[in-house]
């Protein structure tokens, strides 16, 4: 019978004492061989040996990243200054290409464009600490603007370009921005929020593009008036200054602006790129939104960290994906699970075998389609990772292990040195499990729990910078976790830790779910539904849908007796489409006879979530599904439920 890890380690300790007192080389050799033999007889020993190459690779990456970052901390240079190193090394190399317009700039031209934006805003009286909101789609100018603003110490707030009315107003207002830069195509969305008095008309609005009606100042029109030279340096700017705000739903409430400092931006871009082998010759294809950290830091950040070339498409297109990759000689690109599914669902084309893409990195590639995806498109390296914009709990899958988003070494007591841990939670209530001493219960290999990151105030990489609001920051911190007085960042994500140390994303806890690559706040959607006249109560939750990634939004609604259901559905359709981004509109509406509540009068979502959109489990409650093509809700029939479950219908 194999020894337990504890017995093996105790045996090792005993033999270590014996070896220390034995002078004969032969007997030392025998003892060492025997100890190794005993360790390998244990299940733990075999697993530990199997994972040594992976763990060593992870350790080497960690040492390399920390060494680079520590060196930059000593130099204390802001990120735009680091970017100038790339400009000096290869000024004439193509830096960015914009697919829709055909526009391309080399490194010198890109830096000069950033300088013009910087000098324009200096002329407008902007100074260090001011905030400018960027409400824009993917473009060269999105990058050039925030890079230019960083040179004068102005903070850029990256606003989700899908937002409307109240969610848009919240993101603008919480940033405390002095002005907003948008485009002609997005201006109507912004103006609609202003007209409803959701956004103050005192916030200056600039258009990055030409203004057709002449009512707003056009940066594109005026930019040529400003110098391409570097703006006067701001002495207070350094590696620890605030660079931008990137919004995250976290697991509670409305989107919150996470504080991204210069060092954090560079660290994320450099660490992810180094983990997966991004280098100077790479051409990186960016189709994901640049207002998120995936494309906004890890994608476009490859220019700053490695001197790569970026090819920017306004929005992802399955039909153009491989054509773009071939046309622009793309070697690396990003994904989320939905992108992989859309590409697999698309018709075959010659370009999917002709491309030069060697690396795709991101998160959400499901284990069920991993091998099929790699096999069909011939991708040599999949770089699956897990992390959060604001958090300190980040992991990477270094060895292409199918379905895994990263790993933690399985050695006992590794938690004393490893900053990322899993702790046990009650999945039904979301409450932490604590022992008799009031401390959290750590998971061991084979168990499932919430990912947390140990906070160390004196270590910049392990410190939790948090959000603009300190109140929001405190909500994401657990205390007295592994010892009394300690603090950890609460990711709100549930992961499974297998026997070999690989980690797998399971679910989100809290008040958000992920759908179509975006975090959806249940409280935000409930806030839109509850004021509707015929709604007595409403609760929103995420449900699994067939083979699709993430969770689809579902609203359990209690309505007044005797209402006209057709008119009610029409009313909420108008309200939802006017106020919410398309991904946040509930896919299912359930007209509940009654919504159960907990003892504290909180809406009870657990049972509703388990029942999902199953007509039998919902016990006769009418359910309606969202037809994305017709932009309306339709009755869910048994046949349609079967089609949705089988993946035959997915046009939400």
Descriptive labels:
22 helices; 8-stranded mixed β-sheet; 36% helix; Rossmann fold; Luciferase, domain 3; 7-stranded mixed β-sheet; long-chain fatty acid-CoA ligase activity
SSE blueprint:
Layout: H1 5-20, H2 25-41, H3 43-50, H4 52-75, H5 79-89, E1 94-98, E2 104-106, H6 107-123, E3 131-135, H7 140-151, E4 155-158, H8 165-175, E5 179-182, H9 187-195, E6 204-207, E7 217-218, H10 219-222, E8 242-248, E9 256-261, H11 262-276, E10 283-286, H12 293-299, H13 301-306, E11 309-312, H14 318-327, E12 332-336, H15 337-345, H16 351-354, E13 359-363, H17 367-377, E14 381-386, E15 395-396, E16 406-407, E17 420-423, E18 448-454, H18 470-475, E19 477-479, E20 487-497, E21 502-508, E22 512-515, E23 518-521, H19 522-529, E24 535-543, E25 552-559, H20 565-579, E26 588-591, H21 606-611, E27 623-627, E28 632-635, H22 638-646
Give an overview of the whole structure:
The chain is 36% helix and 21% strand. It has four domains: 45 residues; 325 residues, 3-Layer(aba) Sandwich (Rossmann fold), CATH 3.40.50.12780; 97 residues, Luciferase, domain 3 (Roll); 135 residues, ANL, C-terminal domain (GMP Synthetase, Chain A, domain 3, 2-Layer Sandwich), CATH 3.30.300.30. The longest helix is centred in the first third of the chain and has 24 residues. It is α/β, with parallel strands linked by helices and 652 residues long. The strands form five sheets. Strands 2-1-11-10-12-13-14-15 form an eight-stranded mixed β-sheet. Strands 7-6-5-3-4-8-9 form a seven-stranded mixed β-sheet, with helices on both faces. The radius of gyration is 27 Å and the shape is globular.
